[in-house]
Amino acid sequence: MLIEACRVDQEISKRSFSKSRWRVHSKFGRSFNIQDETRQHLAVVASEQSTVVPNGIYLSAPDFERLSAEIAVDDCLIIQNQALRFAKSQLLLTGKNYQTFQRRQTNRINESTWAEYECCIRRITKETGYQEGLNMIFSSENPFVSAMDDLCSEQLSLQRQALHFLIGRGPGLTPSGDDMIIGHLAARLLIIRNNQKLQNYLRTKMTVVNDLTTDVSKHYLLCSLNQRFNQSVLSLQKALIEPNGQLEVDVEHVLKTGHTSGADFLAGFTRTLEFFNAV
Description:
The structure is a single chain. By secondary structure, the protein is of the alpha/beta class. It has helices at about 10-15, 60-70, 110-120, 145-150, 155-165, 175-190, 195-210, 215-225, 230-240, 245-255, 260-279, and strands spanning about 1-5, 5-10, 20-25, 30-35, 40-45, 55-60, 75-80, 85, 90, 95-100. The chain has a ten-stranded mixed β-sheet, sandwiched between helices. The radius of gyration is 19 Å and the shape is globular. The N and C termini lie far apart (about 55 Å).
């Protein structure tokens, strides 16, 4: 069976793949993950109905259903010449490209926009992975939230201590602590508060030390270090610095990610923005 992708992350599309062996890493209702034999690279094959993420390959719903039905976890495949070759099918990476890089930045979020955002978050009672409602993020003293404050500090020792606490901690395929770190990095990038020492330390830990967290979560952490995020996150970042009347809608789109991943991301993102806005 020959299948053509509908949309492909530009970072995948522009790569020239030499022949390499991959495997089906994990499988879900509307997506499955594939991983290369070195365990350093991960890509997501999904139905167009799914959230658009870094290293995503999106198919029409019928094509995804047919391909998903014929594969199982640990099945082998080969990537070569912009095509994924499964046992019975070939998937062409020729679809429309999309972008996952975050390029919009600001020194400070407009006061009225921040007030609108804060009001929106205070109305969200959905529980995070660390078992507190998201609306508690402004006053919480939960250890996860305290670790987020330490990440915002200028002391590398506190930042390292916070990372040791957060990485891999919490439930899910992407643990809550990891989602909060991604939110923290997205916030720092948005308001031009990047900390190169923190980023270098995190990158080294993720690439040198094995089994700190899940393979999927490691993928998204490394993407965030490379300034790549889900498109729902990109839309939220844009709404915060270019008000468009869609801020609450964009928050809701992020919140729908995973079981608690969206809430955990927003917790890390919001606490970080509040910290630096106050500064």
